[in-house]
Amino acid sequence: MTIEYRLMNAEEMDQSFDLWVEVYPETERESWKQEFLNIPGCREHTYVAVDNGRVLSTALLWVREMNDSLGIIQRVGNVSHVATHPKARHQGHAKQLLGLVIKEMEQENCDFSTLFTSDEARPLYEKFSWRTCPLPFWQGKLTSVDLPQSTEYSTRSSHQLEESYLWKALSDIYTEFNQTRPFAIQRDVSTWKSFTAYKITDWVQAGASVWLSYPIQSPETICGYLIAHRTNEGFLIAEFGVKEQHRPAIPNLLYQVIGSYKEGEQVGGRLYLPNEPDMMTLLHQCFNPLMQVESTELMVRPINQKKDHSDFIVPRSQGAGMFWLLDQI
Hints:
Blueprint: E1 3-7, H1 13-23, H2 29-37, E2 46-51, E3 54-67, E4 73-84, H3 93-107, E5 112-116, H4 122-127, E6 131-132, E7 135-142, E8 153-157, H5 164-178, H6 189-205, E9 208-215, E10 224-230, E11 234-242, H7 250-258, E12 268-271, H8 277-286, E13 287-295, E14 298-302
Parallel strand pairs: 4-5, 11-12
Antiparallel strand pairs: 1-2, 2-3, 3-4, 5-14, 6-14, 7-12, 7-13, 8-9, 9-10, 10-11
Helix pairs in contact: 1-2, 5-6
């Protein structure tokens, strides 16, 4: 048996979609297809292990810019879609593809590599020097819905995700809010109009909402946004952003989720929000207990020999670092 390890060609794309559904049977083929096609450079940066025309394993590389733990921009190669057909596992295919991906990241002058993994796959990546990078988020029980909203802002849900102006407006807010934020991905407008727009639209189709905030004095100007998924049992705040001069709009945005529950209902919440004083003051008013939790799904590996794991991995994530859910693939 002669296995080819190389870049994917156009004829093998459909096979890759089939493989990912085979590996993750609870997922849908169309979702894999749409996510893949919205990743910049996906066709040119996907590696496959092929046996007589049959795709056995895949690995995808997406080169992005990401802030390190000090908020300094680093060139990062994100590895995703690492999957091997169940009948072809434990034969070294993923290892071969990861070796090719690492070589490409070196050629692309990446400083680091990132990936998201399960506990089951973690040992494989550790053999290639990826290390776990804890990421903070908040978790708590809602005990009060009383938030002091500002009368200078209005807030509404958006049902116009097809409008291109929305992505430009959200891109501007995101860029200002996350310019030097530790762990944040640098998203340009083209990314917002492709991958990020796809992710948000996919979330909305699954029941999430996008809330937008506007100054009363300038009702056409979007100054903040919040993306959240709400159920009767609890809620998830997935992403948040606000222009610095419009931070008083923060409680108005949070209220769209928190205020949708009845006082004393005591539902649970998971909040991907930065650890900033005004934000924390509001959350402590509404949640008891409010706990900081750390996700261990992100792994980091230096590619540039002059870099070190310590640029990302610190004893405990401090300050307002955020790797937003929309960027996780």
